[in-house]
Amino acid sequence: MGETTSEPLLKVEQVTKQFPGVKALQNVELTLHRGEVHAVIGENGAGKSTLMKILAGVQPLDSGTVHIEGNTVNLDSVETALGHGIALIHQELNLADNLDVGSNIFLGREPLRLGLIDHSRVHTEAQQYLDAVGLEVSPDKLVKELSVGKQQMVEIAKALSINARVLIMDEPTSSLSQKETENLFEVIRDLRNRGVSIIYISHRLGEVKELADRVTVLRDGENAGELSHDRINHDAMVKLMVGRDLSAFYQHTPREPENTVLQVTNLRTPIHPQHELSFEVMAGEIVGVAGLVGAGRTEMLQTLFGVTPAVGGTIDICGETVNPQNPIEAIRSGIALAPEDRKQQGIILEMAVRENMSLPSLRRDQNKGFLNRQKEVDITTEMIEQMRIKTPHAEQAVRFLSGGNQQKVVLGKWLAMEPKLLLLDEPTRGIDVGARQEIYGLMEKLAKRGVAILFVSSEMEEVLGMSDRALVMHEGRLAGELKRSDLSEEAIMQLATGKQPAEEVHTE
Q1: What gap in Å lies between CA 151 and CA 157, rounded to an integer?
Q2: Contact 197, 35 (CB under 8 A)
Q3: What share of residues in the chain are helix, strand, coil (percent, to 5)?
Q4: Residue 136's pLDDT band (boundaries 50, 70, 90)?
Q5: How far apart are CA 180 and CA 173, in angstroms?
Q6: 11: which of 37, 188, 348, 442 is 20 to 30 A away, CA to CA?
Q7: d(C-alpha 315, C-alpha 325), whole Å
Q8: Which of 237, 253, 256 is nearest to 245 (CA)?
Q9: What b-and-e string marks burial along 422-439, b requiring 16 or more CB atoms within 10 Å of the CB?
């Protein structure tokens, strides 16, 4: 970490930004030193993205000042910000996937020779920047042929090529595998050691604790507090983010299992037909599914829901064999799935909250081809109230809601169906800590009602905090099962990495 007693590289003073009807930022302060990883965290709507867009020249500030090396600057465009060495790496990567890596790195700044692009120089210099981020790909390779993690590294190489002194990373690991995340962390630490300053935005507080030298917390567009390195911990961050103590963040109370709701016997999925899966989930039980990316967790849920029908084995719901061949059959059997990609698979963004809520129940609530509008309104009103969905009205298009409220709509539409089995795939991905707690509270409430819940999560804390039991998958097979009393990060990782045979840890 850089010397914090010297003049900051970047200083934000009293920055205010207002949109029609919304005060996004109010007198926000931020300092960034050379060679520092400074995390900026907060709930959705706290003002993080707005502040970063101001620093990157995407949006103008209304009032306040920004200083670089003690000099007041006017970041009135992206080009101006880049000229001062500030580069923003968006969550949604901004690369031209039909161009090669080298062309992307120098896009708009191509070195010329005799008035033409000097491709040899592009290749040579691009290679230097790729080496700097540890990315072993040819500058001639098309971007669309790279994984998301490698595209992320290309973005960083591009930023280094403009001699960026400040890198702003917005949720950089949201689409990365564990291995890609580890590689990114290594690059970040190397950049820090070379004097590059990084502003790191993430909902994943474990990452923040691991990487950050300092943390600035925003709440409702204002500074909520700052944490030095030795004070960074989960509870301290959460308390500043939500303005209240969430020491009992995971409020799950284990209960005695009741009757069996889901019985899976020798199930073979299309993606891993060589492995057989056998397990059960009881009424009122919350069972977590852990494993590394590619372990087959999502694919298993999709098979249970009939998206990709099983190629062998049986699926029983409450003692009746169902083996759904499509989602309609699964829904009729009392199975509901909240998918990982809620925007593509869970909701229709252009439709209203009311319309999204009623989608699964159209067949149930129609009479001779006509929808019972009153029932639709009643269900929507009940779900909005029950799930505390923040929306001006039921006719609001879902795309205007925050990520957490969109997820509540996804869950609400299924709850209206009163499912026997609820499948959740990464239920809190991309949502803020306050909304997370509400989702956990909802899971707890449903379990008390006797709903069986099977959820996939890549968040270790989530699995440990909410599971009565955990199933751990490795390369398409069930590597082991852990009772709540046996749950630990070490035990899960041993199974997830295939380092321990299933029979040594399986518990009845």
Answers
A1: 10
A2: yes
A3: 35, 25, 40
A4: confident
A5: 8
A6: 188
A7: 11
A8: 237
A9: bbbbbbbbbbbbbbbbbb
Mean pLDDT of 160-168: 88
DSSP H helices, 84-231, are 101-105, 119-132, 148-161, 178-193, 205-211
Q: How many CA atoms lie within 13 A of 458 on its CB side?
A: 21
* CB neighbour list of residue 362: distance below 8 Å, 6 or more residues apart: 371
Closest CA to 184 of 135, 223, 113, 123: 135
Per-residue pLDDT reduced to its tens digit, 247-272? 556 777 777 777 999 999 999 999 89
366: number of Cβ within 10 Å: 12
pLDDT of residue 507: 41
**HSE on the CB side for 180, CA within 13 Å?**
18
What are the strands, taking DSSP E only, across 324-371?
Answer: 335-338, 366-367, 370-371
In angstroms, rounded to a whole number, what is the distance separating the alpha carbons of residues 276 and 269?
8
* Residue position matching structure tokens 């099962």: 481
Distance, in Å, from the CA atom of 33 to the CA atom of 4, rounded to the nearest integer, reads 6
Q: How confident is the model at residue 508 (pLDDT cuts 50, 70, 90)?
A: very low
pLDDT value at 99 more than 80: yes
Is residue 227 within 8 Å of 208, Cβ to Cβ? no
Is pLDDT of 436 > 60?
yes
**Do 455 and 289 touch, CB atoms closer than 8 A?**
yes
330: DSSP letter: H
| Cα distance between the two ends of the chain | 49
C-alpha distances in Å from residue 293, one per residue of 179, 369, 431, 459:
9, 43, 20, 12
Q: What is the DSSP string of 464-492?
A: HHH-SEEEEEETTEEEEEEEGGG--HHHH
Rounded to 5 degrees, φ, ψ at 41 are: -125, 165
- All domains in the chain, ordered by first residue: 10-242 (3.40.50.300), 260-347+419-505 (3.40.50.300)
Buried residues in 72-94 as b, exposed as e (16+ CB within 10 A): ebebeeeeebbebbbbbbbeeee
Residue 259: alpha-carbon gap to chain centroid:
34
